[in-house]
Amino acid sequence: MGWDVIYTSAGLVLSAFYAPQIVACLRDDHGLSAYSLQKALVQLVCRAAMMPFVWITVDSVVMLSIQGLDLGLRAAELAVAVWSLKRQGWTWPQIARRSVGRSAVQPTGALRAEGV
Fold first, then answer.
1. How many whole angstroms separate alpha carbon 113 and alpha carbon 116?
2. Are 85 and 31 in contact (CB under 8 A)?
3. Stretch 66-87: mean pLDDT
4. What is the percent of the chain with per-residue pLDDT over 70, rounded to a whole number?
5. Is 13:67 a contact under the CB 8 Å cutoff?
6. Could you tell me if 44 and 71 are in contact, meaning their C-beta atoms sit under 8 angstroms apart?
7. Does the domain made of 3-90 have the CATH classification 1.20.1280?
8. What span, in angstroms and rounded, lies between the C-alpha atoms of 77 and 19?
9. What residues form DSSP beta bridges with 112?
10. Helices (H), the chain
11. Rg of the chain over CA atoms, in angstroms?
12. What pLDDT score was predicted for residue 113?
């Protein structure tokens, strides 16, 4: 079994875990209380920072495809989470504060400590 097969299998299995998270974000009505925007944003930025390295140094369409799939799904998950918060009445400043781990106020006025 070659490394491409192992890498592809692992990448596809990991990618399958994005779907339930995206669906949960779409259905959420509680301010995504169990979701870390900060973690999702950091992971997306780190994956995006790795992409030029992969494009330049790795000569494997499989690795490029799996990395691209992962980056796209991470971006989709974060976009859906932000959309969900906007749908629930969160403002852009509240979402921005929550994304960097600072306290954010829910539209209902309840104080939330995020990024813990």
1. 7
2. yes
3. 95
4. 86
5. no
6. yes
7. yes
8. 8
9. 104
10. 3-16, 18-27, 37-57, 61-87, 92-99
11. 17
12. 46
pLDDT > 90? residue 88: yes
Q: What is the mean pLDDT of the chain?
A: 85
Q: What span, in angstroms and rounded, lies between the C-alpha atoms of 110 and 90? A: 12
Count of residues in the chain: 116
Greatest distance between any 2 Cα atoms in the chain: 56
**Is there a contact between 41 and 78 (Cβ–Cβ < 8 Å)?**
yes
- The two structure tokens encoding residue 63: 């690795």
pLDDT bin (cut points 50, 70, 90) of residue 73 is very high
Q: Is pLDDT of 45 > 90?
A: yes
* Both tokens assigned to 97: 């504060």
Q: What is the DSSP letter of 101?
A: T
Beta bridge partners of 105: 111
Contacts of 64 (CB under 8 A, 6+ apart): 54, 55, 58
- pLDDT for residue 106: 52
**Which tokens sit at 21?**
């998270």
Taking a C-beta distance cutoff of 8 angstroms, is the pair 102, 115 a contact?
A: yes
Structural domain boundaries in the chain: 3-90
